[in-house]
Design brief:
With 385 residues, the protein is mostly helical. Helices cover 65% and strands 3% of the residues.
Amino acid sequence: MQEHDLSYVRMEMINAREAPLRERGFIRWFRVNLFATPLDTVLTLLGLLALAYFLPPVIRWAIIDASWTGPDRSVCATISQGGLQPDGWSGACWAFVNAKFSQFMYGRYPVFERWRVDLTAVMFVALLVPLLIPRIPYKLLNAIVFFGVFPIVSFFLLVGGSFGLPPVQTSLWGGLLVTMVLSFVGISISLPMGILLALGRRSKLPVIKMICVIFIETVRGVPLVTVLFMASVMLPLFMPSGMTFDRFLRALIGVSLFASAYMAEVIRGGLQAIPKGQYEGASSLGLGYWQSMGLIVMPQAMKLVIPGIVNTFIGLFKDTSLVYIIGMFDLLGIVRQNFADANWVSAQTPMSGLIFAGFVFWIFCFGMSRYSIYMERRLDTGHRS
């Protein structure tokens, strides 16, 4: 009887069959994302019609009829039956961007010293990329070098005056160099300072809590332009006679303090989202305040507010363009400054320059956004409130 029963038992599994064509590859992606419902189908068709209407003129202006190289504005003019028309322009004037590209990157930094900026950029990328890739080991050492050693080395490289390097005044800095330095310093300072302010605002010590609340609400209550003006104009009035601060350093302080106030509220939101049982569990283990915060509470809070932190970083990166108000020329500021160059005055020069600056800003902001999404997915434990 037992042998008779075993004769009906399958000893080998049937080979898996390939999924139907409509359930795999690009066909499935289009069906799920673009044509899943009648409403999705209508919206997809409307989107395709809008692209068919707007995209060809944009391509013609930006690529087909664009001027890519040339010594001056004349290469961007159209030729009609009547000859050269100063007010008639065929397409984008990328020749302007090409001619001014070095200035957009370095500002008025001396040409023969720009290798120092390039070396700083290479070190920045070489240290940042391993820090962002989880599989690469020695993260602690990497972070110490990136946040501790790299700023000091880059300071001596960019400013000069030591080790045989000629000094370069910060008034000569400009373009993407200023944008990156302001952003890196602002991000590096605002995150730890924001954590301390958030903890201070939740402190049970009245004096510390009051100081943190006053600072956060005061800074968040005024626009960044006001903070920059105060750091650039009013701060020297409170300094001792004969003592001055570099204008670029004042801007760094203003941007960092402004971002720290907003970062503090983002971190505080994460701390408030942590259940009370986590605090009680840390206390039951005999952990002190800083141990419980560093080992139990803060890691969970930081994971919850990754979108808010990156949103603050993106806002800070874009807000660096406001230093143009106090006479400093970041990427956007130096692009706008070059609109006044008589050799490149044209109808298409402003649009071409602003699109270039916007594209550079978009690359950095999009990169930060995508990396934050990656980190959210990697740290996602599957718990939902």
